[in-house]
Amino acid sequence: MTGPRVLVTGATGFIGRQVLAPLRERGFEVHALSSRGEPGERPGGGGEVGAVDREGEVAWYHADLPESASSVASGRGPSREVPWYHADLPRSTSAEAAAGGPSADVSTEAAAGGPSADVSTEAAAGGSSGGVSNAASAGDPSGDVSTDPPAGGPSGDVAWHQADLLEPAAARALVEAVAPTHLLHLAWYAEPGKYWRSTENLRWVEASLALLRAFARSGTAPRRVVIAGTSAEYAWSQRTHCVEGETPLEPATLYGASKRALHLVAERFAAEAGLSLAWGRIFFLYGPGESPSRLAGSVARALVRGEPAETSHGKQVRDFLHTADLGDAFAALLASDVEGAVNMASGDPVRVRDLVEALARAAGRPDLLRLGARPASPDEPAELTADARRLRDEVGWSPARSLADRAAETVGWWREREGA
Questions:
Q1: pLDDT tens digit string along 187-199?
Q2: How far is CA 395 from the centre of its chain?
Q3: What is the pLDDT of residue 294?
Q4: Helices (H), 46-124
Q5: Minimal CA–CA distance to 178: which of 327, 78, 29?
Q6: CB 311 within 8 A of CB 392
Q7: Can you give the pLDDT at residue 39?
Q8: Cβ–Cβ < 8 Å for 12, 150
């Protein structure tokens, strides 16, 4: 092993796919887990257990993880070869929710940070937050599975593993096979419209603890863990500035409560097991790969299509972070020795209208933006922001790109996707 080895769960999610390149840049040997396989690079068909297919410098290893971890471990090839461990396990929407919640989907979906930016129908954890009522959640999308290749670098830079963490033996077999020094756990249940109140959240608490126990048992020193939390753990009011260790933790949904419960148990377990653990609370996101049913995705797609983009008044204040920035922030947190809860946010709140206007300028179509065309939810917070001093001062991370730059990148992605 040439460097620290990290196992990343939920690696094909809205956030997970953005963290792989930053981890490689920091010297990590990256092992990425998905319930569905590597986006855009899956081996064709279902291979026989133990079979190895070679394509240039990439070795694809097929194995049934829960029952033959030893065959997976022994199948690890030379350092230049990248193993794909294929487990023929049941695929469930819940198995792929990287980073704290679904990311890019329906109006009721505000991934890991609470209803996020726009959905009047989603009052969970304090109400929806922002602009396109009934259409565009902009919370911390974490778990949508993108069909695009992961951002940054060739797939050969990452060892891909496929398994369903909800299978009882999967976590232990996977950790034994990979022998990671670090664990970045982003996966969670993220079915749009359901995850806020679904009992699947309880299964993911159990699965996450099983993964943590497996890592404590089989992981290699220094045994560092970062888990994705959510801003929905905080008590939300009309004006809430979330500060770690100060703002009350009173989740209003089963999703937020499950994340909060996992943090409590994981923190105590880590202390007993000698693990270093940090908990990254995600806030409001946008960026490439976002669903057109979410705030930035809906606005950007409409603009590049030459269609009107209708939003609420946009006066709501939020802390938005581009997913590429969040991926880099998670990599920085994992590489640090900072422990405890850390708000994963920019620390530079803006109005929702500032975000959508930046998208409109980047698209060259401010004339198509229709602020106030949709009603805002009366229950959503007027201000929901994050204190990012721990991330900035202790982790040493802050966004390197401006809102205008990131808006332009987002619009550019939609232009390419729409062929506009």
A1: 998 776 788 899 9
A2: 19
A3: 85
A4: 69-74
A5: 29
A6: no
A7: 53
A8: yes
Q: Give the pLDDT score at 37.
A: 55
Query: Could you read off the pLDDT of 105-139 as tens digits, one per residue?
Result: 322 233 333 333 332 222 222 223 333 332 234 44
User: Residue 201 in contact with residue 25, Cβ under 8 Å?
Assistant: no
Q: CA 287, CA 407: separation in Å to the nearest integer?
A: 8
- pTM, two decimals, is 0.79
What does R_g of the chain's alpha carbons equal in angstroms?
20
Domain that holds residue 124: 5-418
CATH number at residue 230: 3.40.50.720
Q: Which residues contact 74 (CB under 8 A, 6 or more apart)?
A: none
CA 142 to chain centre: 3
Let me know: does 14 contact 141? Beta carbons within 8 Å. Answer: yes
Ordered DSSP codes for 159-192:
EEEE--TTSTTHHHHHHHHH--SEEEE------T
When divided into structural domains, the chain yields a total of 1
Distance, C-alpha 281 to centroid of its chain: 11
Q: What confidence score (pLDDT) does residue 101 get?
A: 36
Spans in the chain with pLDDT lower than 50: 1, 40-147, 152-155
For helices 200-218 and 170-178, what crossing angle results, to 10°? Answer: 30
What confidence score (pLDDT) does residue 396 get? 98
CA distance 25 to 375: 44
Which residue spans within 261-326 are E strands per DSSP?
276-282, 284-286, 309-310, 317-318, 320-322
DSSP 188-236: ----TTTTTT-THHHHHHHHHHHHHHHHHHH--TT-EEEEEEEGGGSPP
Q: Tokens 């819940």 identify what position?
A: 94
